[in-house]
Amino acid sequence: FFLKAEAGIRDAQESRGLGDVYKRQGHSFAGSILSGLADRLKDKIKLLIYFDSIILLNGEAHFDTLPKEIVKKRIQLSEKFDNAISIPEPNAESFGIFDIKQSLFLKDKLTPMPLSSFQSKLSLKNKIGNGLPLCYIRCKNPLYEPLELSRKRVEDFGWPVYDLNAGHDGMISHPHDTINLFYKILAEQLK
């Protein structure tokens, strides 16, 4: 899964003539993909921004970082939904979206997630971030419970943390605050 995602990003970058990539951000599940890109394309990246993201270590799968009861529930959902092929999309409220218009917007964008993507292990040759400048955006209102271990890891690693007073999908519920925070991060991290 991770290698396919990285290859897709690399192909899109080359086909659009984007050349070097300077800043990359990964939201939620894409944090592990961001780590994989940094591991393999360090010379193309200047800054990594983990946006309320999962932080996997080498050899870990997403399910390895979740409480066993959440894993069990997601597998059961997948079995009921489509014979364990994918996990149905969650509701917008689980991502901190409570406004009805924003909820309807998000509902149109969410899709089921392949169960195998939660079980695929991340393979890294280097430390997370591969020595690149990085930071973490923590969406605080409300905190997204499945990322508890990732937030603890970020704290233990001593990464710079920027707080966004929004739920997990803060870029939808608080777009202006999100953009302003990105400007602040770029100004501080790319001095």
Order of helices and strands: HEHEHEHEHEHEHH
- Between the first and last Cα atoms, what is the distance in angstroms? 35 Å
Major beta-sheet overview? 4 strands, parallel
**Cα-atom Rg, whole angstroms?**
17 Å
Describe, in short, the structure shown:
The protein is α/β, with parallel strands linked by helices and 191 residues long. It has helices at residues 2-15, 30-40, 68-82, 100-109, 115-119, 148-157, 170-173, 175-189; strands at 23-27, 47-51, 86-87, 113-114, 134-139, 161-164.
Write the layout of secondary structure elements.
Blueprint: H1 2-15, E1 23-27, H2 30-40, E2 47-51, H3 68-82, E3 86-87, H4 100-109, E4 113-114, H5 115-119, E5 134-139, H6 148-157, E6 161-164, H7 170-173, H8 175-189
Parallel strand pairs: 1-2, 2-5, 5-6
Antiparallel strand pairs: 3-4
Q: How is this structure best described in words?
A:
This protein is of the alpha/beta class. Helix content is 44%, strand content 13%. The protein contains eight helices and six strands, in the order αβαβαβαβαβαβαα. The chain has helices at residues 2-15, 30-40, 68-82, 100-109, 115-119, 148-157, 170-173, 175-189, and strands at residues 23-27, 47-51, 86-87, 113-114, 134-139, 161-164. Strands 1-2-5-6 form a four-stranded parallel sheet, with helices on both faces. α1 (2-15) crosses α2. The longest helix has 15 residues, at 68-82. The chain is globular, with a radius of gyration of 17 Å. The termini are far apart. Residues 1-6 have low confidence and may be disordered.
